[in-house]
Amino acid sequence: MTKRPRPKGRGAAHDPPNRFDGRQSRPDPDAMEPDDLRPATQVREDASRSVLSRNDSPDVGFEVSLNPYRGCEHGCSYCYARPTHEYLGLSAGLDFERQLFVKRDAARLLERALAAPGWTPTPVALSGVTDPYQPLERRERITRACLEVLTAFRHPVSVITKNHLVTRDLDLLAGLARFEAVSVTLSVTTLDEELRASMEPRTSSAARRLAAVRALADAGVPVGVNVAPVVPGLTDAELPAILEAAAEAGASFAGMQMLRLPRAVAEVFTAWLQTRDPARARRVLARIREVRGGALNDATFGARMRGAGTYAEQLRQLFDLSRRKHGLDRPPSLSTAAFRVPGRVEQPRLF
Hints:
Blueprint: E1 42-45, E2 52-54, E3 64-66, E4 69-70, H1 94-98, E5 99-102, H2 106-115, E6 124-126, H3 137-140, H4 142-153, E7 157-161, H5 170-177, E8 182-187, H6 193-199, H7 206-218, E9 223-230, H8 239-249, E10 253-258, H9 264-276, H10 278-291, H11 310-325
């Protein structure tokens, strides 16, 4: 039997078993039709009745998030969100990249939530799980519709993406910036275009992401970069260069996150790594285990995004030195002061 080739433009080579489903089958590569090697993206409607999610993890910097999409066509081989597709009866592999769910009612649900009498304004993260500006957004425009609602309410929002498409919405983002109600973060994993195209096949190039940083900064929108994930033994040496490029593009803050490989992600990423660079795979996996207590993942709160051990600490020190050197230590503080409910007449206070 021949080895199954990786579908063009995809980060995963196959569909790992769903941990909730005991019935598993694997395709025979010898019997695959040519079109199966380039599986098309399929879009379905998500009928969720609410659109805001609460988070209580100390590892992320937000309490409320909004995800317009489930699944992500970017196809990053390392994406920690892949296992969320298993709750839908699908796989964390190719299914996550090509079986996408869109929340076409997201803007209406968001408007209803923000207008509710008990709503207390607090920064909303767009997205937290999948990318709000993945290629599908160009057609669906759900993220833009949600930003229009947030703009009408003058509600604070933080956006994180790997896609230059965020610049399409400069008008809305600049409007929110006037009320100190927005920040945008571009994730930059590597400046190596060949590596980026293989590891993150449908994302914008690093050059395009840095161009987005420049456009946002020029429009007065607080913008930074997130070196995420840092892949020990593969991309870690690029930390200083990425931060220097970000500063030159106009970024004012930066963060970093260590690679984590929960559940089926470990299988997807390991398969990608061994296919792309088998000579380095053993060393890279050893480095990952070094910052994860001997495993490929550590789900412990407080360590999930940071890693642990001597090597992880060395990388954090390198990051901190580079961040200070380039002045990337000015994270914005989002304000709720301008929040309003459109059309609602506020009652004057008696005292």
